[in-house]
Amino acid sequence: MSVLNRLKPVAFLLCLTPAAFLAWNFWGVTHDRPEALGANPIREAEIFTGLWTLRFLAITLAVTPVRELLGLGALAKYRRMLGLFTFFYACVHLSMWVGVDWFFDWKSMGESFRSKRSGVCRTGIPASAATHARPRPTSSRTRPTWS
Question: What does the alpha-carbon distance between residue 23 and residue 19 come to, in Å, rounded to a whole number?
Answer without folding.
Answer: 6
